[in-house]
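Session log. Operator J.P. requested a structure for one protein chain; no other inputs attached. Running the standard single-chain path with token output.
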Amino acid sequence: MKKFIKKYWLLILAVVIGFTLRFYKVGDLPSILNRDEAALAYNAYLLAETGRDEWGRAWPLTLESFGDYKLPGYTWALVPWFKVFGLSDTIVRMPSVLAGCLLIVVFYLWLKTLGVKEKFSLLGAWLIALLPVSIFYSRMAYEANIGLTLMVIDLWLITLLSKKWSSKAFIPLIASLLLGVFTYNTPWILLPFFIVYVLLIFSKKDRKKSILLSGVIAGIFLLGAKLLLPLASQKSGITIFSDETTWDSWIKYRENLNPKWLWLLGSQYVYWVGLMWTKFWQSFTPSFLVTSGGNHSWHRLPTWGHLNFLIYGMGWLGLAITLKELWSVGIKKLLSLKNLGKETRINLATLFLFFTSLAPSVITIDAPHATRSLLFFIFWVYWAVKGLSWLYESKFWPTKNMFWMIICLVIWVESLWHAQQLYVAYPKTQGMFEPGYDGMITYLEDNYPRAPIAIVDPSGYKYILTAWYLRIPPDQYFGTNVRQLPDKIGFRYGEQVTHYHFIADPNDRSEEEKILLQWISKTEQWRIWGISL
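Structure written below.
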């Protein structure tokens, strides 16, 4: 044990610091579960108590919740946690915390397997430990965060098998691929691209093994497609291919085209490709990656993006170095894929998967989208490690120690700045979560346990937060839950749970509902009408 600690103490320290950053006040920051977290939590509670989800279905492969079909992996993982540790927001987020810590280790192992030197594999582990997007996503119950760790495990094991075929890596790889398919949709969508990664990274002499592994991955992809059809059907409603606004924009685009070019540029497929191309390059901008993080307030800090400036800059350098290395090989030789060296195969495989990792994001209407681009961010750290490695080997430095002193100083300055934004500034900007709802609903339940209560809820998701924070028993939930009719994309919002009525406007409450709970956006506070506090 002492030898292990002595050998890997820097990696262990990275994991310890990474865990601290992810776990510190995780139950209170963000201050309340969002609707997706509450859906995972309450469904896990129902499954633990009754073996049925909120629709009364026994251990379903897809959790319908409010219509936003969810894969069961995270919810199933919560069931034993609830059995052992009880119900709390902290426990709801713990699987994500641990996935974020495991990511530090598996990223290190993947870099080592790719042939990255030990010191820079350790540097990569530290960059992941301090990576803003990983810290942020690990502090919330995001299925995508677990899916990300599983995808990096997949890449590590695939690369390991390309070096030495072993059942000790093959069987865990199958397990990891299956877990990814049942945890989040991105690992499933990216499986065809993982097949190409396999074919590129395996050498010609191992062609039979690469074909076998590709066949297994393809089989898992088809299995997922068959079992998760309801999920795919619902998720299609948020893609550019079926969105009504996108279709209207295409019609206007056609109307403004020169009639001479209508036959070529007026096709909806050409329009879709143009949209995806735009969304693709928006994902590379400093605005999305570093400074603002996009338009989704749940997915980033208000004053920070997903990467640090160092990773962003060095990522471009590493990417440029890779492209230069491939160019020196020759386009003709690259296209033939014959007699390619190990380093060239790695460059091709990583470059291909880096660009295609954005596929789940660019086809959606709200791209660039961080949750669907997590693997893209991890590849950016990979390029940053490669850029830093090249910089280290250059002649810019009088001594190598100066390189490490400057890089460590930049990393810690950015990390302390990010920590200040996360732990000091961010708690003051929680309005998007409408904090305090848990306390208000608990107060009403304790003091008015039978009184009809109206809750202004234009979004339609407060029913699941109410069920979670009041720990409404399964029999009461199943006996009183009423839902609205589905909207255009199949969402079915809550209308009634026990004596709580969820309404879009204060004027919608009935005469019996004397008590009204409402979020006041101007003051960012909850207000109870009809009683004296």
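Operator note: The chain has a mean pLDDT of 90.
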